[in-house]
Each structure stands twice: as structure tokens, then as C-alpha cells.
Amino acid sequence: MMKFAEIIVDVVNSQVDRVFDYIIPEDFLVNNGDMVVVPFGSRYIEGYVLAIKDTSSYSIDKLKPIKEVVLQQVIKPEILYLIHEMKSKFYLKYIDLIKLVVPSEIRNGQIKTQYSKILRLNNDCDIDNYLQSLPKNSKNPHKVYAYLQNKLEENYTTLSKMFTSSCINKLLEEGILLETKKEKRRKTATLKKENKVVTLNKYQENAVTTVLSSDFQTFLLHGVTGSGKTEVYIRIIKECIKNSKTAIMLVPEISLTPQMCGIFENIFGENVAVLHSGLSAGEKYDEWKKIYDGRATIVIGARSAIFAPITNLGVIIIDEEHDNSYISDNNPRFETYKVAQIRAKYNNCPLVLGSATPNIESYYKSEIGEFTRLELPIRANNKEMPRIEIVDMLPEFRSGNNGIFSNKLLQELSTTIKHGNQAMIFINRRGFASYLSCRSCGYIPRCTSCDITLSYHKECNELKCHYCGNRYRAITKCPNCGSDEIKLGGVGTQRVVEELQNLFGVPVFRMDVDSTKTKDGHAKILTEFSNTKPSILVGTQMIAKGHDFPAVDLVGILDADLSLFFGEYRASEKTFQLITQVAGRAGRSDVEGRVVLQTYFPKNYVYNLVANYNYKKFYEKEINLRKTTNFPPFAEIVRILISNESEDVARDVTRDIFYQLKDVKVEYKDRIYFLQAMQSPLNKLKNKYRFQIILRYDVELSQILQQKIYNILQDANQRKCSIFVETNPLSLS
Ligand code: ADP
Ligand code: ZN
Ligand code: ZN
Fold it and tell me: What are phi and psi of 641, to 5 degrees?
């Protein structure tokens, strides 16, 4: 009987999100998840088998046969299920989903497994006899024999180096040595880290046993910085492995991966596979293949590792769950924890989201019972949290200190260096956008219609509101006090490094996007820093997370204000999280930690709550604010970004979509709080003009409205604009 396959074809740039039917030739063995080659128009292209069926709704003479099966089951059943679920829940295109689950290194077929030659003694030979037959002065063959008797096997290159390749080749020729092939692992650098054996405290113990005795459920592990969350993850994973299950552990960014990998590889050895964007193509191929073949039982990696083709999961862990990197900021857009939930449910295993400063929305879910909260309220070393001192920069400035560092921070740095310890200096940096402020009175321009801080755009010397699109001329004089000392928030890492070197004459390391461009750049800088005392590490957001350097006793935070006044509804939350994370780097072992936070707004409630480590109070304040102002989690914000090379086309399509949405707004009246179309603040990018529509509505309308928006956009898709939809976007630029 004839069979048909539903196939997703890999057409670049296609707006078409369609599944095509193809005939399965009689002598072909085709399964779900196979990668195939099919005729498409006048050419052949790659495709992926979604389903197999006995009938097709198209007439047979219209259908073409599959030409070739390239890779069998490249998409495993669980991952295929994930694709279907993500498709229906997040309205993503099939081909985009395929690209997530089958990395390009696997798809393009250009990267191959590398093998190494392994040699061993041929025990079927009379080796003694052979060796005796050799001339007296021939020593190397004897040495090879002794070496391999002891070591059993060794790879060709090593042996050749030790005993000359002419000798090894000769022994191979004579049949004394035998050769086998072994898959080689192109291996990434890890930061070596010894693992202390510790006894869990009662909070850690409770967290571990609760998670281990659970079926599918989402846990929020709320543990202060240094409370030993990593130890909890390790115990849970150990237990899973013992029960012949597997685990995925996600970490925010490559900066964090070398250290985490070091810890895990020390404990779990070759069972670990690592997946993140810092890998070379060959490395990525090897790691993916290792997982696919079932040779890895633990996957550690960044966001994309949630799609690892591992089977039989016993737990999924997302460390630092509040981190922005868990939300993809370009197409296809998804929230990692929701993908993790689908997989955890499929495997009926627990999902653990860990953080010292959970997302407001996650904490809210743990309050209403959607997540189960587990608390680690104390530091594992029983030490106090590091003392955070807030330094008001205004009096410093008025009394003549117009440098980067307050006197307090300089004093503390001297103390740290005198004691041979280490300091971290954190510089806030957020994308291209920034704000203007008056150095004399602290005035910051805000939008007259939204009361959100205006972002400064250098290219046009304008201030813009990212929520409503209002534009204002940049100020040169303060409208509040008349001073003309207007400063642009933010200083560069390089300048900070230079000044510190001049002031203290100790090694100063720099970690930012520029200094970590080279391969394994992060691991190198971190290793050097950890081996140098006294020393200072200067860095951006990258140094905020996860690092555990026992000799760091001081953390300095410059320009904390930059994120507090960043024009978005999550600004306070992000600031609270960032400062807590950075502060948490200090005093993690025996030395007591100190934190100096420099600000022009010392009275701001966020700083005061952060200095007291009062997450709970901050949460309560923030959630009330969100409720009264109708922001997430009580509302949902959707941004539709429309872009095209032609400004007119982009504007027309935007207008069309906008009018259709206006009709929807009429239907739901005041449950849709906001609807507006505008030029995107970043109005031209890579030669494309950008417009956006922002919609904010009651969260209870989520399902209905998402569906309606999807339908409207399906029609608009015909018009060759690229359209990108985000729910609760991280940025509105
Ligand atoms: P977190 O991830 O919560 O910030 P870590 O897991 O990095 O904290 O732990 C901080 C430090 O405390 C580490 O050096 C770790 O080895 C140590 N530690 C963890 N659990 C214990 C424990 N039960 N007893 C003693 N030390 C511990
Ligand atoms: Zn002023
Ligand atoms: Zn505004």
C-alpha cells in the first residue's frame, strides 16, 4: 500500500509555514524525524519527516516522491513531540523549530566526526621472538613493548613522539602493533575546580529530598547568594544518574559555563556534554553527537541546550532563572522555562528553577501555587551576607571629586590590596541606550505621557520614550536647576582599568564583550584572575553571575543608576537582581565581604531594600505596583515588530495590522489597556526600516488574543515584511 510523508521543507526566508505531502517510494524505509531530500519546484532541498500516513488529501499525480533519506531519526520522538507542542503554544514556524532542535553543524553535513588512531600490542604475534631478532643497538621497539604492556593502548601521535614515527610505522608494518579507530572529542577548556565534600545543611537537605521525591512539578529554588544551590543541583543529579536517568542543567551565559563545567566534569567525568554558543563548529558537532548517541547522561549548557536530544530525563535544572539570556531576543522567540516544562512533563520529572532573585513573575507563580517554592535562607558557610554600603555621589562631586571612584571605594580597595585579597569592579552597561542626567541636582528627563525615563539616542541627539514613541530634543541645560553639567550615564571598562592600574599598581583584568571575543576568552581571564593575588577584575554584566572566587572580599558597583532608570517596566526588578548578584560575589569563603554601591539617588527604595537583602519586601512593593498599573504578570505586553527595506511598505503593513487590531480593541474595550503603532526607537537596522505595534491587555485574555494576533499576522505575512512578535519583551528598542 502506498504511504505518504508530511514533510517540512528547508526553504530559506520563506514566509510559508506549510507542511507538504510526499510519496514514500516502496523500497524506502522512512520514519518520523528523518532528514530527507525532496524535489521542490525545479530543485532538490532538505526536508524533515513530521508524520507518516496512509492517505493524502492531494491527488497522487500532484505529489512527488522522496528522493533520498539522509539521516535517520535525526529528530527523536520526544523532540518531535516538543516541536508540535511549541508550535501550538508559541505560534512558531516549523522550519524555525527544526533549526532549534537540529543544529546547523548537523544539518549541513560538512562537519564530520574525527577519529584518532589507537595502537596496542598484537598478542597473536610472538613479540619476544621478534624483539630478539632485532639488531643489538635497536632500543626503541623494546621500549614501545614495555610501555604498551603497562599502558595497554596509546594513540599514534603520542607514541610517535615518544619513540619516533619510523619505529612505530615499522612495528605496524610487521604486525606487532594493531590499529583501531576511536572517536575523538574536540574539547573545550574548562576551569579546573576541586570539589569540596560538604554536608548539606537542613535547608539544602530538604530541597534535595523534596525534588527527588517529586513527579512532574515546577520548583522555584529561592536561595540567597552563596546558599549552596550548586551543591543542591549536584546531589539531585547524582541521585538521578544512580537511578539510570539523565539530566539537563542550564546556566545563563558562556561566562558562567567554564566554572560550572569544571565542577561537573570533576564529579561526573566523561558523562558530561557541554552545549553553548562559544563552541567551535567541530566541538558543537561532537558534543551534540555524544548526546545523540547516548554517550552523555548530563548536558550542561546555555539556553539552546534545552533542545539537547537526550532521552530519559530525571530532572531539568535552570540556574539563575531570572537571567535575560533565557529569553531569546530574536526569531524564534521562546521562554526557556516553558520549553523545559514541556520536556519535564513528557518525562514526568521535576523542573527546578534556581535563583537568589527570582523573576517577579516566577515568585508570583510560587505565591499562587503554580510553582512550589523551596527556600535556602542562609549562606552555606553561615557567614553574614556582605555589607552593602550606599555612597551618595552628589556630595563627592560637589566637594571636588569628579573622578569615577568615591573616596570610600578607594579606601576599601587599598584595604583589600593590603590584605592580598581580590576585588571586583562592576560597570553597568545596557545596550546602545542610555540616559542623560544633571550632575548637579540629579534631574533625569522623563516622558510626559508615560513617566518612564527617556533613552538618549546619540545618532540623532534625541531623547525617546520606548513605550509611546514620543521624541524630545536632548537637553544641554538642566530645566530643574539651570546647571549645564549634563552627563551621559556610563563610563567604559577600559578607562576604569587604566585608572585602577595607575592608582594601585596591581594586576587589573578586564572582562567585557571585547576582551572575551577570542575562543575560550572567558575561561582564560577567569583562570588568570583566580591565580593572581592581589588583583582586581573589572567587568560588565558578565562578572555578575555565578562566579565563586574565595579571595574576593570587595565588590564595587559604579553607575548602578543606569539600569534603575532604564526605560522599561522591569527596570527596578533588573536593578535589584543585578546588584544582589554582583554583591553576592563578595565574601564567599572565610573572608568577610564588603560592597560599595555608588549612586546619585541614595534614597531610592530599590537601593535600600537591596542593601538589606529584603527580596520579599521588594517583591511585595513591585507586585502591588504591577497590579495597580496593569503590567505583567497581571497584563501581557505584545510587541509586533515589522521591518522592510522599503519604509513605505513597512509603514503600510504596520497600518493594516494596526487597524485590524483596533477592531479587536473595540470588541474587548477596556480590557485592552494600550494599543499604539509607532516607529521603532531603533528605526533603521541593517538597512531595514522598523515599525512596531505595542499592545497591552488583561492577562486573562492571553489565549484569545494571541490566537487573534496570530491570525491577523498570517494574512499580513503575504506581504514580504519580516514580522517578529514578542510577549513581554525585554526591550522595546
Ligand atoms: P550559590 O550557587 O547558592 O550562590 P554555591 O553553591 O556556589 O552557592 O556555594 C557557595 C559556597 O558554599 C561554595 O564554595 C560551596 O562549596 C560551599 N557550600 C555549599 N554547601 C555547603 C555546605 N552544606 N557546607 C559548607 N559549605 C558549603
Ligand atoms: Zn539640575
Ligand atoms: Zn512615553
Answer: -105, 125
More confident residue, 493 or 212: 212
Residues 178, 171: Cα–Cα separation, whole Å: 9
- 222 ligand 1 Cβ < 6 A: no
Q: Where are the alpha helices (DSSP H) in 56-201?
A: 77-90, 94-101, 104-107, 127-132, 140-151, 156-163, 165-173
The residue assigned the cell 538589606 is 612
SS percent in the chain: helix, strand, coil, step 5? 35, 25, 40
**What's the rounded Cα separation, in Å, for the pair 222 and 356?**
6
Sign of the CA dihedral with 343 first, then 348, 353, and 358 last = positive
pLDDT of residue 419: 93
- Evaluate the omega torsion of the peptide bond into residue 77 and state whether it is cis, within 30 degrees of 0: no
Q: Terminal CA-to-CA distance of the chain, rounded, Å?
A: 55
For the record, the C-alpha cell of 319 comes out as 540556574
Name the residue at shortest CA distance from atom 27 of ligand 1.
380
Going from the C-alpha of 42 to that of each of 17, 38, 45, 359, 375, the distances in angstroms are 20, 11, 10, 50, 61
DSSP code string of 517-531: -STTHHHHHHHHHHH
| Rounded distance from Cα 535 to ligand 1 centre (Å) | 23
Rounded CA-CA distance 660/640 in Å is 13
Q: Give SS3 for 690.
A: strand
Which has the higher per-residue pLDDT, 347 or 680?
A: 347
DSSP string, 389-432: EEEEHHHHHHTT--SSS-HHHHHHHHHHHHTT-EEEEEE---SS
Q: How many other CB atoms sit within 10 Å of the CB of residue 24?
A: 19
pLDDT at 394: 80
* Amino acid code (one letter) for 673: Y
Q: Which three cell numbers stand for residue 253?
A: 551565559
Q: How far apart are CA 224 and CA 236, in angstroms?
A: 19
Question: What digits encode the pLDDT tens for the residues 633-653?
Answer: 999 999 999 988 899 999 999
- Are 199 and 228 spatial neighbours (Cβ–Cβ below 8 Å)? no
b/e for 358-372, b at 16 or more Cβ within 10 A? bbbbbbbbbeeeebb
Q: How far is the CA of 205 from the centre of ligand 1 (A)?
A: 13
Looking at the CA of residue 225, tell me the nearest atom of ligand 1.
Answer: 4
C-alpha cell at 445: 528627563
DSSP 697: E
Could you tell me if 579 and 572 are in contact, meaning their C-beta atoms sit under 8 angstroms apart?
no
pLDDT above 90 covers a percentage of the chain that reads 46
Model confidence over 585-620: pLDDT tens digits?
887 777 788 999 998 888 889 999 999 999 999 999
Does ligand 1 lie within 6 Å of residue 231's CB atom?
yes
Whether 156 contacts 119, CB under 8 Å: yes
What angle do the packed helices 165-173 and 156-163 form, to 10 degrees?
120
- Cα separations (Å) of 630 from 363, 570, 616, 627, 702? 17, 13, 21, 5, 14
Of 578, 579, 581, 583, nearest in space to 555 by CA: 583
Determine whether the shortest distance from the Cβ of 228 to ligand 1 is under 6 A. yes
Say what the pTM is.
0.82
DSSP 494: H
CA atoms within 13 A on the CB side of 712: 22
Residue 120 is predicted with a pLDDT of: 87
208 CA distance to ligand 1 middle (Å): 14
* pLDDT score of 138 more than 90: no
One DSSP character per residue, 274-333 reads EE-TTS-HHHHHHHHHHHHTT--SEEEESGGGGG----SEEEEEEETTT-GGGB-SSSSP
Give the H or E element holding residue 682. strand 672-685
Q: At 623, is the secondary structure helix, strand, or coil? A: helix
